[in-house]
Design a protein that fits this description.
alpha+beta; Rhopdopsin 7-helix transmembrane proteins; Heat Shock Protein 90; 3 domains; five-stranded mixed β-sheet; four-stranded antiparallel β-sheet; elongated; disordered C terminus; transmembrane; Histidine kinase N-terminal 7TM region domain-containing protein; membrane; transmembrane helix
Length: 513
């Protein structure tokens, strides 16, 4: 009688413990989907406990029929069928905020299978495929014997429990949060499996199944939350206090519930903070102290930079025209110096050709005009190439070819033809190009003056100019002497090839000088 009273007392307090512990667990889950699944699990445990309590209350009632007592004896299997499915639901949505309130279809199908097995247990008196009660001897007590249906039921039930833990383990591995203490929930399941196996064989472990199952599921959820196998908000207070933003959570009466370390202390310190407030669901206010110190420092730095840029702009506005004027003046001075230097050596020829034109007539006068035209063409193209070189210090091959082509065209009046083979790069240093142009023009002009040859072949390379003429004459010696007067460092090599005379003029030494 005393044990029966204690059992009834325990069953009276067990729903309250289950409800309080279950709601505490539900509140600690991070996402809403898992919280809904926890409510299903707690509801199934409470319904099971209610059915068992009614069964124990009906046993001493004389008028209670055997059919009613047998129905309450097996009815708890209906609610027990929902426990592993609820655990699978929790494992399915524990790591995300599920918007859908309904159970996933595949879990509903699994719940339907469990209910079918529970219905088979409820109708066991008709088919005895789950339990059987053979009579030992005449007048002896009935004993319970497990049939194949019981083994099938327990295998499926425990497979669902271990499948839920396997899902949680896989998710922990994929999210790289697995820790050794996550083995504890599996160890607890192993203990419960051992208890369920030895329950039918060892009287020492025949503790009430309702107590052990309720404790197992609540303790299993507790271990999953404590070990991190299921996401929880247990550390939200310490996380809030260590948060880098300045946050303060006030209750409905305006008292501070949680304060982060970045919240400024006194009113003097809060001058550099912008305060924003927001109402939170369930009452209370979230206050955000936004640190404006760094922003204002950046604004001051940008303002200082803008002032410096403005001063620089005003200075450039004043100085830029002056600099352009100075640059233009320097360019004009350099051009004047170059032209003066060029004309200094050419003025005697201009005077000579002018006098020759005035003193001669006929073919001689025409020949003097041709010489003056050649001299003017050389002077013009030499100045153009010099201006081109002032832009970047280099002269393009196209410009050089164009200038050389005009010189060759002017020489045709003297019945002198020059063929040029170009082996120069697309661009060359200005000094090299000008020196090559001078060598080409003076050589061709001296050949035209002597009227000794009619065809000249020229090879324009990067560091040398090579001329091929039919024969060597006095005019070639005059050109070498004239060239060495102005370009002493330049080397000239004359070689008789048998079929022609090669005159090689090196440009490298002149460039280095």
């Amino acid at each position: 009688m005393e044990m029966t009273w204690l059992r009834h007392l325990a069953y009276a307090f067990m729903p309250a413990v289950t409800l309080l512990w279950g709601e505490a667990l539900r509140a600690r889950f991070l996402y809403r989907g898992a919280r809904r699944a926890v409510r299903l699990l707690v509801a199934a445990l409470l319904a099971w406990q209610s059915v068992r309590l009614m069964k124990y209350m009906l046993e001493p009632v004389p008028d209670a029929g055997d059919g009613l007592i047998n129905a309450f004896w097996y009815l708890y299997y209906i609610f027990r069928a929902a426990l592993p499915v609820a655990l699978l639901w929790i494992a399915h949505v524990a790591d995300r905020d599920a918007v859908a309130r309904r159970m996933p279809p595949h879990l509903l199908a699994l719940l339907l299978l469990n209910l079918v097995l529970a219905a088979a247990i409820l109708t066991n008196d008709w088919h005895e495929q789950v339990f059987s009660f053979p009579q030992e001897r005449e007048g002896g007590e009935w004993e319970e014997k497990l049939e194949w249906g019981a083994y099938a039921y327990w295998v499926i039930w425990f497979l669902e429990v271990f499948a839920a833990l396997a899902i949680l383990w896989v998710k922990a591995g994929l999210q790289k949060i697995w820790r050794p203490q996550m083995v504890l929930p599996v160890a607890l399941c192993g203990l419960f499996l051992a208890y369920s196996i030895f329950y039918n064989f060892l009287p020492l472990v025949r503790i009430d199944v309702t107590f052990t199952t309720t404790g197992f599921f609540l303790l299993l959820l507790e271990l999953c939350l404590q070990t991190g196998l299921m996401p929880s908000n247990d550390e939200h207070e310490s996380f809030f206090r260590e948060a880098s933003p300045g946050l303060m959570l006030l209750d409905e009466k305006g008292r501070a519930s949680l304060v982060s370390k970045a919240v400024p202390g006194g009113e003097a310190e809060r001058k550099d903070y912008r305060i924003s407030k927001m109402k939170v669901p369930g009452g209370g206010t979230l206050v955000w102290y936004e640190d404006m110190h760094l922003l204002r420092e950046r604004q001051r730095f940008l303002a200082q930079a803008n002032r410096a840029l403005a001063r620089r702009r005003r200075y450039l506005e004043r100085e830029a025209p002056k600099r352009r004027e100075r640059a233009a003046q320097m360019m004009q001075d350099r051009l004047r110096e170059e032209v003066e230097s060029l004309l200094k050596g050419l003025r005697p020829y201009f005077r000579e050709f002018r006098e020759e034109i005035l003193k001669t007539e006929g073919e001689a006068q025409k020949h003097a005009v041709y010489k003056l035209n050649l001299l003017a063409t050389y002077t013009k193209k030499r100045c153009v190439l010099f201006l081109k070189s002032e832009e970047s210090g280099r002269i393009a091959l196209d410009d050089f070819e164009m200038a050389s082509s005009e010189i060759c065209s002017a020489l045709r009046a003297f019945r002198l033809h020059a063929a040029i083979d170009w082996k120069m790069p697309d661009e060359m240093p200005a000094q090299t190009a000008l020196l090559a142009f001078d060598a080409l023009t003076t050589f061709l002009a001296e050949a035209a003056r002597s009227r000794a040859v009619e065809d000249i072949y020229v090879t324009m390379a990067e560091a040398r100019v090579t001329f091929l003429v039919e024969q060597q004459g006095a005019w070639l010696a005059r050109w070498q002497a004239l060239w060495h007067e102005g370009h002493a460092a330049s080397q000239i090599a004359v070689k008789d090839l048998g079929y022609a005379v090669s005159v090689d003029c090196s440009l490298t030494e002149e460039v280095k000088r």
